[in-house]
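Risk register update: the risk of archive-format incompatibility is retired. Evidence:
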Amino acid sequence: MTRRLVVDLQSPRTAWRVTPDAVRAIGDALGRGWEVLEVDAPAASDGDGGAGSPESTAAARGAEIYLGYGVPAGVVAAGRATLRWAHSGTAGIGGSVPQLRGTGIVLTNSAGVHAEPIADWVIAAVAYATLAPATNFGTRQANVSDRIGGLTAATLDLGYSRATVDIQGGTNLGDSLYQAHVEYPGSDDPPAISLDHESGTLAIGERSSFSPLRLFGAARRHVVITLTDRIPWTIKITGGLANARLDLRRLQLAKVEISGGASRLDAQLPSPKGTVLIDISGGLSNLTLRAPTGAQWHVAVSGGVSGLRINGSSYAAIGGDFQQQSPGYASATDRLDIVISGGASHVDVRTG
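Archived output:
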């Protein structure tokens, strides 16, 4: 019987991506009787990793060893009966521990993998700080707004990584399309905030320039965005967040897309008009979605999830696909279509 080892190390970052020679060396070290199955799908290598993909979940079924960036919930659920050892290419393991606890799967990590580059950065930063003029880091602020003009719909495209985000619908903005308040470390460049008046896309992200002084700045980034309730909104969030609170109850909501992961996301949804898609991918540690009483909904999960609750009903770790819907969903014209992919843990969906 052939035994299997899964290599899930296709990082989007070239420096962290496993090489073909390394995969061959793993196979040579295992010897006869082993299959080395490499997952071709991208694997997030930032932070503790662990975002997962449908391909990694499928590969983990029947595997004994898993090598990845963190250990996704979907991988744990799919390989629970056979998986004996999981190794993370990241130094941190905080994102992997909850789904591995009590499974008997041995977890090892790459402690010290960042030691040399961190030492190089610290030496360079100390030299820069010693030679550069004295700088008051602190926290800076940016406040921006724009008028609605002739827009009949708008899109918020937020890509400001490691930030705590508050998004809310506002009833008293007058002719303003939005109001944005951003707090960021004094060692950072100000965020890039722009509105494309033709497409109606409000983009908020970080500038590409780098300053070594960021190593000494506070880590806090806080974004507060109030959106007009006068036109429909599509909300797109990418790049990974620390925490996100979305109070969308007063908003005309067309669609929500969240990718890149987050430590915690709490969203209060409005009564849907038409079919409103809530598309969440890339791994989440804690997700709460709250919809109004009587809202019709459909929940589809792929890529694995652990700790799923829907209106008080709990579901065990799910390694494959899962679907559940409210009794009136199929015939409803106004409804929520909730899609969760790429692995998640501690998911709570409620109405009322």
